[in-house]
Amino acid sequence: MESFPKKKVSSPRKPGRWRRRLLWGTGTLAAVLLLSWAVMTSNWFLRAVLLPKVNHALNATVNFENAEWSPGSQLRLEGVTLHATGERPLLKAARVEVNYQWRDLLAGRMEFGEIACDKPELFLHIDRNGNPNYGPLLARPKPDSEGEPIRIGKILIQDARVEYRRDHQSGTMETAHLSGLTLTTGEIAAGQSGQITLEGRAGYSLKPLQQAVEGLEGDFRLKFTHQLDDRLLPTRVESKGHLQVGTASGQFAFASGLKAELDAEATADVLRRFALHFTHAGDALGKLEASGTLQPGTGGADLTVALHRVDQRVLNFLGRPVGLDFHSTVLYSTNRVRVAAFGKTLEVRGT
Fold it and tell me: Do 234 and 268 contact (CB within 8 A), yes or no?
C-alpha cells in the first residue's frame, strides 16, 4: 500500500511586528502631545519660558499669582504686578484677560478680540532727586525692526486708579490721582478711526512739610474720537468733556462747585482748537482758548493762548499752587507761548 506524506497544518499567524510598532508609536506620540499641551498650558511654562522674555522686553519684572491659559484662544492672569524700581509696584491688577485666535498669531497678525482689566492701579512716582520709578521702562532695549500692525477689537478697564506723586526737596508732597476709572474703546487698528471714553473721579493735593493736606476732587468724563496711522499713532484727535469740582479744602476751597467744559481738536502737528469754559452755579467765569503748531517728537509747541473775561476764581485756581493771588482781577489776555524740550524751556510773550 502506497503511503503519502502527511500535510502540515499551519498555526494561525500572529500579528506582525509592524502593527505593534505602529500602535506603540501612535500611543507614544499621543502621550507626548498631551504632555506637551499640559506643559505649554501650565503656570510653569508661563513663568519659566514666556515671562523672562516679557521682562527683558519691558526692562522690568512682571509677576502673577495665578493663570488660566489656552494657547488657542485666551490668556487670563490674576494678581498681576509690574516692578520697575522701588518697593511699590508700578502697576498691579486684580485680573487681566486677553482673547485672541491662534491662527491670527500664527500667521503673524497681531489681532486680539478683547482686552479686559479689573481694578488696575498705576503708581507714578518722582523722588526728591527727580528720579522717576518708571525710568527703566524708558531705557528698555529698542526692537531691531517695527512690529506687525496691531488690531484690538475692544478694551475695557474697570475700577482703575492712577496716582502721580512727586516729592519736592522742600518736603512738600504733590499728588494727582484718577480713581473709580472706567475706560472703554471701540476697535483700535492701524489706519482706522475709533472712540475712547474715560470717566471717573479726579483729584489734586499738596502736603507741605508738617502741614495739613490741601486739595480738591471732582467727577469728570472725556470722550475722544481719533484717527490712527499705520503705527497706531494718532493723526487726528477730537475731544469733549467736563470736570465738576465737588470738594475742596485749604487754599483750593474757592474751587468748590467750579465746572470746566473742554472742546478740543488736534492733528499730529497742529492744535486746531483747545477751549476751556469755566462756570460756577450757572454763572460764566471766563474762557481759555489755545491754538498753534506742535512738535511731538521734540516736545515742542508754538501756541497762541487767549483768556476771555477770566475772573479771580479761575485765576486763583490756576495761580495759588505757585503762590499767586489775583484778588478781584478780571483778565483779558492774548499770549504767544513757546515750549521746548518737553517743558524744560518756556517762553511767554503777549499782553
Answer: yes
- Comparing 131-140, 199-208, 267-276, the range with the smallest average pLDDT is 131-140
Backbone angles phi, psi at 25, to 5 degrees: -65, -40
Question: What is the C-alpha to C-alpha distance for residues 113 and 105, in angstroms, rounded to an integer?
Answer: 12
C-alpha cell at 202: 479726579
**Domain-located, residue 81:** no
Question: Do residues 257 and 238 lie in contact, with contact meaning Cβ atoms separated by under 8 Å?
Answer: no
pLDDT higher than threshold 70 for residue 50: no
Contacts of 124 (CB under 8 A, 6+ apart): 90, 132, 133, 134, 162, 163, 164, 165
User: What is the SS3 assignment for 10?
Assistant: coil
Which grid coordinates belong to 125? 512716582
Residue 99 parent element (H or E) = strand 91-100
Query: Does residue 163 lie within any of the structural domains?
Result: no
Count the domains in the chain: 1
CB 134 within 8 Å of CB 126: no
Q: Does residue 42 lie within any of the structural domains?
A: no
The answer as to whether 61 is a domain residue is: no
pLDDT confidence bin for 178, thresholds 50/70/90: very high
What does pLDDT average to over the chain?
80
Residue-number span of the structural domain to which 325 is assigned: 257-351
pTM of the model: 0.73
Cell of 296: 511731538
Give the residue ranges of DSSP H helices in 42-182.
43-45, 51-58, 102-106, 135-138
